[in-house]
Amino acid sequence: MCFLGNHQETNKVSVLKQNVSLLRRQNQALAAQILQVPGGTLAIQPAKSGMPTALVNSRYIHSAMILFREAERWAEQRIKDCQTGETIVVLGVGLLYHVQALRQKLSQDHVIMVVVPDLSEFADCVSARSLEGWGERVMWVAGSIVDMVARVIQQAKRVRILSYEPAVMVHHDTYEHFTLQLRDRLAQQLSGTLHIMVVGPIYGGSLPVARYVVNALEALGHRVSWVDHSPHEAGYRNLETIRDTRLRLTVQQRLSDTLGVISLAHVAEDPPDLVLALSQAPLSMAVLEQMRRKKVLTAMWFVENFRHLTYWQQMVTGYDFWFVMQQESCLDAFRKAGASHVSYLPLAADPAIHQPMTLTPQERYEFGAEVGFLGAGYRNRRQILPSLVGHGWTFKLWGNEWDNPGALVTVLQRGGARIDTPTSVKIFNATSININLHSYTGEGFDPEGDGVNPRTFELASCGAFQVVDARTLLPALFDESMMAVIKRPDELLSSVQTFLHEPARRLAMAESSRKRVLEAHTYEHRMKTLLGAVGLACPDRLGAILQGERHGESLISRSGACPELIPMLQQFPSTDRVELVDVAKTIRQKGPEAKLNREELLILMMDEYRQEKRDFL
Question: For residues 434 and 459, is the Cβ–Cβ distance under 8 A?
Fold first, then answer.
């Protein structure tokens, strides 16, 4: 490949002047800004070839030896996935060797946009290397993150992000914020519908979350296949009667593996666009690998504390996408373990279920209390909650796993029975002050407490007042005008004493927290974010569908090269998604005696081939 940059550039002023003139033809504001920026972000020095290379903090952004070949290899690997109709958004500036290689290898139909997060870095680049011959065919995107996202959205319908990691690391946080905002903006524009298979666990805390996810996806208009393994809970738990521990675990694993194969059978019967699993869904690595071989995209929403439940380490490479309820150390751990895509996705509430309600006198008598707690009997709760017993208020404790409750025996309700979701909503509504202590197997509050539990969102969605222990991720979700936040266990008693005498303040805070949930923290919000992330990562697959490119009207508009398809497509509503199987079905409905044209016969042949290749098992 022949790079057109001037290999003998030594006059910095001349190069800068030439590049500014080129930039001015496309973006006058950016050209003017470059002349006002001093530069100094990149340390420029000659490579062994004599061409300039760059360092930041003594770390090379480009090779010190094979600049051109390095850029070519990067571009060759990336263009394999690029599809017609996509806008390519490049993250990472440096000296732009990679962008030049990409521009020269991609067809002219592809629009390339380069995100410029720091004008100082860009000024260093355009003072060192000429853009002539290729930079004219690149769109340079600079400004605030909001402005850059808006420009990409204005230009592109389908976006493919390509990252040049050595340069991305220079401005990692800015690029990450840009990507998240772009994801969210694209998610707001989604119009297409997917077929999503949701796979839940046999039992446990993520089971109700799976049901909320199903409700949210259906409310958003997607077709959902719900693989519900909870009917097998009784049989799974019955295996606990096997006394030999190793034998019991072996048999339980065999049952779990069988449920995984059942999930695979559902996929084979009606292939989805995406398989979305919730924590502890019985999908083994063998099942996930079979789905991958059949090009089925998979995602896991891991709604557990990654430090306490570590089975994800054995599964991390099995899923195409991971969504987790913790940040920083969690994201780093998943990436280091081999996760291709991992994103922060906090929990939420379902306002159709978690809502304010009017209770009957009998319900208020049974569930009502001035102070209440609902949850399992973790060690820290056993240690902290007795401080609320024996005062002048009513205190009720709800939930299971409270064997040998000690001082809490007098307040434990229903003998420590498990509380279902409808009952929990009544408890939240009937309790003046709901205590919300995150679980911890040690004493006090978890010193690494970050992820926010579902109860925080559910209480808020019910319009119920809560006292919650501090979490590092809580302030970004709710502020302290919405709930009482305590930083130490010894603050619990005084907080309860204070708020018991301030009913108006409690009501105002609870109403604010409910408003916040409805604005930003429902499962519909979370599913939009999740699908936005998957669509952004797979613009040629889920991204295209979510943008409505499988709708009847979109297919008709793109059928100019094959007008014979138009009459077949016109049989479907213009805003409905149309697939090969749908067209084949309408053709078969003509009956066995119908005379079919060439295109109809080809479609039936392709559909027969599709069915023959469904050998998942």
Answer: yes
